[in-house]
Amino acid sequence: MPSVTTPDGVAIFFKDWGPRDAQPIVFHHGWPLSSDDWDAQMLFFLQHGYRVVAHDRRGHGRSAQVSDGHDMDHYAADASAVAEHLDLRKAVHVGHSTGGGEVARYVARHGEPAGRVAKAVLVSAVPPIMLKTEAYPGGLPIDVFDGFRAALAANRAQFFHDVAAGPFYGFNRPGAVVQQGVIQNWWRQGMMGSAKAHYDGIKAFSETDQTEDLKAIGVPTLVMHGDDDQIVPIGNSALKSVRLLRRGTLKVYPGFQHGMLTTEAATLNADLLAFIRG
């Protein structure tokens, strides 16, 4: 399997499809998933002539299940290792959920300073911070994330099933059309990864304050969020992020849920293509 070894010795799996001379689009997945979560986007943009790249975060999917480094700094550095290894230039970096935090830190600290990034997209993303703090009183209390940790430690398989079958895709909403294959694929991706990486990752996606990352990003950045996102509520995420970005544009999707990239792929893909071409 194709992989790159990071400076601290971690093997990061990646996919790299399409013409090597085409503009690259790099996809950063959410917790606790893998690059497989981008299938609908990677195939779509490949058919439109782009080079598409996605990697499995350390401890997730097919990347090494190491004990340490499950924090936003390492996530961004690992993404940078992939970009450097493939020599990606004028890339568009697209991140979903925790992957949105990874994109914000990568672009701010690595990609934009190195001149490798053309645009960024934050989809249902966690920045600036999910946790309720003095600076962000609209965030979620620590008890919510402690509950995630307790459920994961007690029965990760059941916890992952319940998240996918419930709030992630909005399948718990009245009248929702439940897609069993989508639930099973989410569960499959999650269970491929390391329980340690997933446990530590809860702190990474909930407690990392990315205010300064957002302020540092100078490239055009599209913020996409559903207003019925039960995982990352829009009020303390997208609505705050777009005010911190220097060149941010916000697109709100009425009634869309956290996993809209899968359940509403046709709509999201068209909007992504328009932004990338614009």
Question: What does this 3D model show about the protein?
Answer:
42% of the residues lie in helices and 16% in strands. By secondary structure, the chain is an alpha/beta fold. α4 crosses α6 (195-207).
Task: Report a brief summary of the structure.
The protein is α/β, with parallel strands linked by helices and about 280 residues long. It has one domain (about 5-275): 3-Layer(aba) Sandwich (Rossmann fold). The protein is about 40% helix and about 15% strand.
What are the main properties of this structure?
8 strands; 10 helices; Rossmann fold; eight-stranded mixed β-sheet; globular; 278 residues
CATH superfamily: Alpha/Beta hydrolase fold, catalytic domain
| Shape designation | globular
What is the CATH class designation? Alpha Beta
The CATH topology is Rossmann fold
Sheet-strand content, in percent, reads 15-25%
Average pLDDT number = 98
Number of helices: 10
The total domain count is 1
Q: In angstroms, what separates the terminal alpha carbons?
A: 35 Å
What summary fits the major beta sheet? 8 strands, mixed
Give the name of the CATH architecture.
3-Layer(aba) Sandwich
Topology:
Layout: E1 3-5, E2 11-17, E3 24-28, H1 39-47, E4 51-55, H2 72-86, E5 91-96, H3 98-111, E6 117-123, H4 142-165, H5 180-192, H6 195-207, H7 211-216, E7 221-226, H8 238-244, E8 248-253, H9 260-263, H10 265-277
Parallel strand pairs: 3-4, 3-5, 5-6, 6-7, 7-8
Antiparallel strand pairs: 1-2, 2-4
Helix pairs in contact: 2-3, 4-5, 4-6
